[in-house]
Structure formats: C-alpha cells, structure tokens
Amino acid sequence: MLFTIHLSFKAEKQLENLLNWYTDIDTQLAIRFSDEYALALHQLSHHPTNYLFISVGLRRLPFKTLKVMLIYSVKNNVVKITSVKDMHSKPDKNFY
C-alpha cells in the first residue's frame, strides 16, 4: 500500500533553506541532498512505520549519508512531514 505524503509549511521552508544552503556550498552536494530527499520520500510512501518513534505519534527518518532527518507522523494512510532537521546546526535533545 502506498501512503500519501504531505509536507507542512514549516517543513517546506526548512527544506527550501537546506537546499539553498547545500547549493551555496557545492552543487554536487545539493544534488546529493535532493537525491537523498527523494529516496526518503520513496521509503516513507512505502514503509513509514519502519522508523523509530521519537515522541508520541512522531517518528524520524535519518538520511543515509547527510546529517539530515525528517520528522513525521502517520495517520490514516497519510504521512505528514512536520520538520526537516539539519543536525549540523546545534542539535538539541528536543529538536522536533
């Protein structure tokens, strides 16, 4: 079964900022970020419950090689991405 994916406004802005940041550093790095994001979306649309809970109702999906993770919830066959977290910038215990 495929799950529908929705991106919150906050997550959309975070994604845009991260893509711009990676693009400013190196175009190849931005391409790698985009590829990992596409892979993460594919994984979430097929198997969103395979990833660890970080809080009641919230899960995380870390990227394979970059220090980025998606914070999301699953309800009624819909995956809602609430945050795109860059772990380079002062990671907190409560990053969601």
Describe this structure in words.
With 96 residues, the protein is of the alpha+beta class. It has one domain (4-86): YaeB-like fold, CATH 3.30.2310.20. It contains 2 helices and 5 strands. It has helices spanning 9-25, 27-46, and strands at residues 4-7, 53-55, 58-62, 68-75, 78-86. A 5-stranded mixed β-sheet has the order 1-5-4-3-2. Strand 2 and strand 3 (58-62) form a beta hairpin. It is globular. It starts with a strand and ends in a 10-residue tail after the last strand.
Q: Please describe the biggest sheet, giving its number of strands, its sense, and whether it closes into a barrel.
A: 5 strands, mixed
The fold-level CATH name is YaeB-like fold
- CATH superfamily membership, which one? RelE-like
Q: What is the helix tally?
A: 2
Number of domains: 1
Q: What's the number of extended β-strand segments?
A: 5
Question: What's the gist of this structure?
Answer:
The chain is of the alpha+beta class and 96 residues long.
List keywords for this structure.
96 residues, alpha+beta, YaeB-like fold, 5-stranded mixed β-sheet
Which helices and strands, and how do they pair?
Layout: E1 4-7, H1 9-25, H2 27-46, E2 53-55, E3 58-62, E4 68-75, E5 78-86
Parallel strand pairs: 1-5
Antiparallel strand pairs: 2-3, 3-4, 4-5
